[in-house]
């Protein structure tokens, strides 16, 4: 585990960041060059991807210096650098998480017709921003001075919020994320009932949107690892760099899956254009105008 865990972390995160960039790139191409209707949800998703991309090298560097490895196997310098980067990853996670859910809600608001669906999406989006912002503030200033977080001397923990509070906050945020993911994943099943598109087309769109809820599975799997946050600011007195490994892995999966699912669902016009270009037949073309134009 000591040898292969860091490599596994890097490979998994690199795979997902590449796939997410492909998905977002195709989304930008479809919305800007095919539909000529680049909207707020597209800007939000692009900003989310940029945020994830900024987060990615920080995570890779943290792994290089010791994240995923036992604290007692790290030099003082490497342990300090790894802890500083882990701190940055913690606070940036909430920023990217809020953005990806905002982008998904903005997309669904394009096709929402009923007042109840619009209210649910707006409350979910604004509530997510407020709660995420509050968590971001607490985590940013969990230690004062902030540098106490990556001080390998356990005495520095006296300058920080008790680790039990941080663990509780992460458990609470994880629960809220699961609720938000499943709301975003299941609401389209009700929203698309009123659109005049074939049943097969509805199932495809609903399935892709529900895929975003899989991100909550990563959140669920990550939950047992959150207990490792109790070693925050324990320095040489704990094994925080090792215990954070599972959290970093599943955080990367959670954020990337949300971006990928939210982008893939916008690619139907590209598929239609490909069939036209290569002489194929795109079934039910004339029946999905309602969905096509409402998502432009």
Automatic annotation (TrEMBL):
<feature type="domain" description="Rhodopsin">
    <location>
        <begin position="26"/>
        <end position="272"/>
    </location>
</feature>
<keyword id="KW-0812">Transmembrane</keyword>
<feature type="transmembrane region" description="Helical">
    <location>
        <begin position="247"/>
        <end position="267"/>
    </location>
</feature>
<keyword id="KW-1133">Transmembrane helix</keyword>
<feature type="transmembrane region" description="Helical">
    <location>
        <begin position="6"/>
        <end position="30"/>
    </location>
</feature>
<feature type="transmembrane region" description="Helical">
    <location>
        <begin position="91"/>
        <end position="112"/>
    </location>
</feature>
<feature type="transmembrane region" description="Helical">
    <location>
        <begin position="124"/>
        <end position="147"/>
    </location>
</feature>
<dbReference type="InterPro" id="IPR049326">
    <property type="entry name" value="Rhodopsin_dom_fungi"/>
</dbReference>
<dbReference type="GO" id="GO:0016020">
    <property type="term" value="C:membrane"/>
</dbReference>
<feature type="transmembrane region" description="Helical">
    <location>
        <begin position="204"/>
        <end position="227"/>
    </location>
</feature>
<dbReference type="InterPro" id="IPR052337">
    <property type="entry name" value="SAT4-like"/>
</dbReference>
<protein>
    <recommendedName>
        <fullName>Rhodopsin domain-containing protein</fullName>
    </recommendedName>
</protein>
<feature type="transmembrane region" description="Helical">
    <location>
        <begin position="167"/>
        <end position="192"/>
    </location>
</feature>
<comment type="similarity">
    <text>Belongs to the SAT4 family.</text>
</comment>
<keyword id="KW-0472">Membrane</keyword>
<dbReference type="Pfam" id="PF20684">
    <property type="entry name" value="Fung_rhodopsin"/>
</dbReference>
């Amino acid at each position: 585990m000591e040898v292969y865990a860091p490599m596994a972390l890097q490979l998994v995160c690199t795979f997902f960041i590449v796939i997410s960039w492909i998905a977002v790139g195709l989304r930008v191409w479809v919305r800007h060059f095919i539909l000529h209707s680049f909207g707020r949800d597209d800007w939000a998703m692009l900003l989310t991807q940029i945020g994830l991309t900024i987060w990615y090298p920080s995570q890779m560097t943290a792994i290089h210096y010791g994240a995923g490895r036992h604290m007692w196997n790290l030099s003082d310098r490497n342990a300090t650098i790894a802890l500083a980067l882990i701190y940055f990853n913690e606070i940036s996670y909430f920023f990217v998480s809020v953005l990806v859910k905002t982008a998904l809600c903005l997309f669904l608001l394009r096709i929402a017709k009923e007042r109840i669906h619009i209210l649910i999406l707006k409350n979910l989006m604004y509530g997510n921003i407020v709660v995420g912002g509050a968590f971001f503030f607490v985590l940013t200033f969990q230690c004062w001075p902030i540098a106490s977080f990556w001080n390998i001397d356990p005495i520095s923990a006296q300058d920080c919020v008790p680790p039990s509070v941080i663990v509780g906050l992460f458990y609470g945020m994880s629960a809220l994320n699961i609720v938000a993911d499943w709301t975003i994943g299941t609401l389209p099943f009700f929203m698309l009932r009123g659109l005049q598109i074939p049943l097969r087309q509805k199932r495809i769109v609903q399935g892709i949107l529900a895929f975003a809820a899989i991100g909550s599975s990563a959140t669920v799997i990550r939950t047992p690892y959150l207990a490792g946050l109790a070693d925050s600011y324990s320095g040489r007195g704990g094994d925080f760099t090792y215990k954070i490994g599972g959290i970093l892995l599943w955080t990367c999966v959670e954020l990337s899956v949300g971006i990928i699912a939210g982008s893939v669902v916008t690619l139907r016009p590209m598929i239609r254009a490909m069939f036209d270009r290569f002489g194929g037949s795109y079934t039910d073309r004339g029946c999905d105008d309602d969905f096509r134009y409402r998502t432009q």
